[in-house]
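FORM 12-B: Structure-to-Sequence Request
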């Protein structure tokens, strides 16, 4: 029986025993927000979503802009109360301080008091937790040692992002929410961050990740949750999500192709053809039947990004 760290209601038939256990209801979670101007009234940003987060996993929460992802995160972190339904974080309402003590968060925005030094910011955050990590350990793990005595107002965007990431882990949390964590980071720093995340997961930590870098989610996620228009439209492992769309990425070289319906989806760059097809075998048969002289054929499974785009109707 799986044990939940945090859950949106699933069904009334589940049972469990754990310090992380919760009571699930048949109700689903919904939330209404104002659309920004009175004439638009209210918008139901989240429409009956239902899911759980399990200990030791990295859940990637993926959604197009404006699809309810930000509202969902706010609900999960206790920043917003649902119109109906129930959310539990370690068996508690996420708005209760006892639940939030075990949570780390890296928000998209990294606004710090400009006159405080990096070291002072870390010490300030550490003071809110009963057993925080040592300042020196955080500085080493997140490559902050050389800027510890600098005021945050003089930091680059990437340095502020690294500080925000360090603060998410400062309290020794059981679950960390990473909201677009690698925006503004160079490749080397991004790789270092993901090394730290992998270590955290190996220690039975839990991560909820939102990112527009879907290659990161594909490499790291234990499970993927896809939202669109305020609803959860699919959930599963990376391989399960990719397998459901049935797309294949096809590449090959040919000097000339006849005008065939099977080839209409392919793009050409000189003698190179590439594209996505539902039935790669049918494409190859068509090439052979029409005596096309092709070589360098590659047939690859769809990436997570390609599956996401097809499921949500988005385009690159």
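FORM 12-B RESPONSE
SEQUENCE OUT:
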């Amino acid at each position: 029986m799986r044990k939940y760290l945090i859950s949106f209601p699933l069904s009334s038939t589940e049972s469990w025993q754990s310090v992380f256990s919760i009571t699930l209801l048949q109700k689903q979670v919904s939330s209404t927000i104002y659309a920004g101007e009175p004439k638009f009234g209210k918008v139901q940003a989240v429409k009956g979503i239902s899911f759980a987060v399990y200990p030791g996993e990295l859940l990637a929460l993926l959604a197009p802009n404006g699809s309810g992802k930000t509202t969902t995160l706010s609900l999960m972190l206790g920043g917003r109360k649902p119109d109906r339904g129930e959310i539990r974080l370690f068996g508690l309402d996420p708005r209760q301080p006892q639940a939030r003590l075990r949570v780390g968060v890296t928000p998209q925005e990294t606004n710090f008091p400009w006159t405080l030094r990096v070291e002072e910011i870390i010490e300030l955050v550490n003071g809110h937790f009963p057993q925080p990590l040592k300042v020196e350990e955080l500085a080493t793990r997140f490559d902050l040692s050389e800027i510890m005595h600098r005021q945050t107002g003089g930091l680059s965007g990437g340095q502020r992002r690294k500080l925000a990431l360090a603060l998410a882990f400062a309290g020794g949390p059981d679950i960390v929410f990473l909201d677009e964590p690698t925006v503004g980071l160079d490749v080397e720093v991004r790789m270092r961050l993901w090394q730290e995340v992998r270590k955290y997961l190996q220690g039975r930590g839990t991560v909820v990740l939102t990112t527009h870098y879907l290659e990161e989610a594909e490499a790291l996620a234990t499970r993927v949750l896809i939202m669109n228009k305020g609803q959860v439209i699919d959930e599963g492992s990376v391989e399960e999500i990719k397998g459901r769309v049935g797309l294949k990425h096809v590449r090959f070289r040919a000097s000339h192709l006849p005008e065939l319906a099977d080839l209409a989806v392919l793009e050409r760059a000189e003698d190179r053809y590439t594209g996505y097809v539902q039935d790669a075998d049918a494409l190859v048969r068509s090439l052979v039947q029409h005596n096309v002289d092709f070589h360098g054929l590659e047939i690859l499974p769809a990436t997570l990004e390609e599956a996401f785009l097809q499921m949500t109707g988005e385009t690159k």
